[in-house]
Amino acid sequence: MNKKSYPHGTEMDMASLLKTKTRSNIDIIAYILQMANGGNKKSKIIMNNFHLKKYFPILCAHDLLYYDKKNNIFKTTPKGMDFIMLYGKLIDCYYISGEDSNFS
User: Fold this and answer.
1) What is the DSSP letter of 47?
2) What is the DSSP letter of 5?
3) Does the model's pTM come out above 0.70?
4) What CA–CA distance (Å, rounded) separates 25 from 104?
5) What does the pLDDT profile of the chain (104 residues) look like in tens digits?
6) Angle at 8 between CA 28 and CA 76, to 5 degrees
C-alpha cells in the first residue's frame, strides 16, 4: 500500500482514499499535492481526466502546485506543503476526536 506520512504521526492510506466513493475536494487536493511532492508527471498523479481538468488549474493558480516545463513534471510548492501540513493536523484532530476514518 502507498502510505504517506503526515505531520504529527498521522498516516493516510492513499489507496483506501481513492477507493472511497465519497472523497471530499480537500481529500483530493491533499492527494494531488502529496503525489506531486518532489516532482511527478501528471500521469502518475491524476486519478482521472476529470480531476486533471478540475483541480490542476486551480492548484496552479493558487500557487499550491507548480508545473516545471523543462522537466515536464508537477511539483508541490512551499505553499502546497503548508496545505499538506495543515491537512495532516486536521486529520489528527479528527482521529483524536474518536470519529471513524471516513472523513466525508
Assistant:
1) S
2) E
3) no
4) 10
5) 344 444 444 445 555 555 555 678 888 899 889 888 888 787 777 777 787 788 999 999 999 999 999 998 899 999 999 999 999 888 888 766 655 545 44
6) 40
Q: Let me know if 78 is exposed, middle or buried by CB neighbors in 10 A (0-12, 13-18, 19+).
A: exposed
**Nearest partner of 31 among 49, 9, 6, judged by Cα:** 6
Nearest C-alpha neighbor of 16 from the set 32, 33, 3, 35: 3
| CA nearest to 32, candidates 57, 8, 10, 9 | 57
Cell 470519529 belongs to: 99
Residue ranges covered by each domain of the chain: 35-99
